[in-house]
Fold this protein.
Amino acid sequence: MDQDGTRCADGRVRYTATARRVRELDRAEALRLLTTVSLGRIVFTQHALPAVRPVNHLVEGGDIIVRIHDDGALASLVAPADVPGVVVAYEADAIDPDTHLGWSVVATGYASLVADADEVDRYAELLCPWVALPMTGALRIRPDLVTGFRLEAEAEAPRPASAARDAS
């Protein structure tokens, strides 16, 4: 489909009023954008296969913090103390479903258990649970690679004066 139309799930073509362009984000802007939303998806390995879970998060000092509870899928991500953590990816976005404008960020790095009890208590206050299970811990994702893009409206080129006269 060309950049002016998108095929919808029901087969219809929805035409947009403006063309879009993709702009790559630098690390600082991508991490800043993560602070503007509370929902994301963590991608990890479970039983040797990729798994994805929606989670709420906060960003602190360039690290991404998510909550965990006993018996949850994310509890399996706790690495032994002698390794830097378990490799994960974290993705969040804010894309308008009608205009298709917005952004998406992916942070890849190591997730490790937050060991300090005071930090865990503070994160328990800041990260609201989705289910009625107590937060038993928190994961800190230290991103090594942060990538992202912004979908922006393409600026219209000014029409030459002669074209504007011809159109009227």
